[in-house]
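Subject: Protein record for review, amino acid sequence with backbone structure tokens
Why sent: The fold of this protein is of interest and is recorded here as tokens.
Enclosed: The protein record, placed directly beneath this head.
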Amino acid sequence: MSTFLNDINGHYAAEKKAILALCNKGTAFSLADLAKELGTSIPKISRIVEQLLEDGYLADLGKQESGGGRRPSLYGLNPETGSFVGVEVNRDSLMVAVSNFSGRVTHLIEDIPFVLRNTEESVAALCALVQQQLSEAGVPEALIRGYGVSLTGRVNHRTGYSYSFFIGEEKPISRLLEEGFGQPVLVENDSRAMAYGEYMNSFRGTRGDILFLNIGWGLGMGMVLDGKLYYGKSGFSGEIGHFPLLHNNRVCQCGKVGCLETGASGSALHSIVLEKLKSGQSSLLSKAYAAGKDINLNDILDAVQREDVLCIESVEQVGATLGQAIAGLINIFNPDIVVIGGRLSVTEHYFMPPLRSAVNKLSLNLVNSDTVIKVARLGKSAGAVGASLLIKNKLLQEII
């Protein structure tokens, strides 16, 4: 499948793509800067930049501040050149983010009801629904350059296969999505997409290590190590939810016993609350439970916001368990920042105190003294935003 960058051919094609990759890092460059980066002359760079300006890929961003003499012009990506769409596939909904060519988020479409199934028909329905939502939001289809799709579970971004939505050996889900969208597609694990979205929007320029804990129905982790996403040898790093830490004899959805996810996740919170309701403890949810109604995670999170004591105590229990794991991560990685994100982060006022207490109690003081623990700033949009930026980087040939 051709991309818009395939249109850059002829003279100076390699140099043009190199300039776009440099500008994709978010920095404005003068002609002298670009000539130095590419190891060539200013007159040659001037001709190439002029072509990129004519093609609409670059924009003149104004004059550089200078202490004296003639101020050089600065050049960067033209935000009007195109859009990149990020789609986060949640358990029962979609989140869509649109970023422009310079990386600024222009549209957010939240909580689109949808359940992805392991069928080609379901993937096609997802594509059609996203395109419908984009059209209704006024995003011009002609300007969309590519799609990033964030999926739960084990995802190999290099091969395009998802092993949570595994449809068959012959065709990876990325190819099905490309057929549905008619554009290049990058698939990514949701926790890594969230980590990257948070990093690029909140911590860009931090050259140290950032660990992002995604506490949704499950539990995952994305790692930005020395400014780059970390994948591991096979592309499946970050499965912190399946770390065999607990002795609760609970069977995880992966089939193992004692996984961290069984005590520190949305599904764990759901189980804890239901067990307390079953034992007869009082709650705002007691009446619905006694009537045989299904209690879902949204009901529990809503009860927390309404200061339900049973649900708050359950959230605190999950926070303490996760804090135990984070203490271990801090001892191993000695990271600059640990970011807490995902669905349960909305309960931060009750979740974070026991988490911090466990970290302070169980991690080494000499190691944790330089680590900051924060709640994600992007909230539930982090995965979709991150996916939009990852497809942008792929198409602009930035190695991450």
Summary: Residues 309-333 form the longest helix (25 residues). The two ends are 22 Å apart (CA to CA).
